[in-house]
Amino acid sequence: MGERLPAHLEASAILRLAEAQGGFATVLAKGERDAGTILLVTTCRGRNGRLYERMPTLAGSRSFVATKSEDPENPQEFSDYLARRRRQDPDIWLIEVDIADPERFIAQIDG
């Protein structure tokens, strides 16, 4: 496993990639500048929120995996969950990306 890119640089790259693909991205919460964990919330036209977190793979790398999906019947529960995660770990970066094809976007980031 290679050197990890500082969190602030990775966050900046995610924002730029989303914009380059015609989407919109914003940092909802800034975490630790160099070693913070990045959590991504993806939406498509503001709907169907899904939280992605990096998880270890059998190959020893770390890939983004969907860990929570927004319930359209109860969107507040998803927002509450994100707020709890932020309180539990103030070092995390929380980035929201609104893009036409969220799964493809995540695949590009994982490269």
Could you please describe the fold and organization of this structure?
- With 111 residues, the chain is of the alpha+beta class.
- The protein has a single domain (7-110), classed as 3-Layer(aba) Sandwich (hypothetical protein tt1805).
- Helix content is 33%, strand content 33%.
- It has a five-stranded mixed β-sheet, sandwiched between helices.
- The protein is globular, with a radius of gyration of 13 Å.
Mean pLDDT metric? 93
Report the helical percentage. 25-40%
Number of domains: 1
Under CATH, the topology can be stated as hypothetical protein tt1805
- Widest β-sheet, arrangement of strands: 1-5-2-3-4
CATH 2nd-level architecture: 3-Layer(aba) Sandwich
First-residue to last-residue Cα separation: 14 Å
How does the overall form come out from the CA principal axes? globular
Q: SS-based structural class?
A: alpha+beta
Number of helices: 3
Q: How many individual β-strands?
A: 5
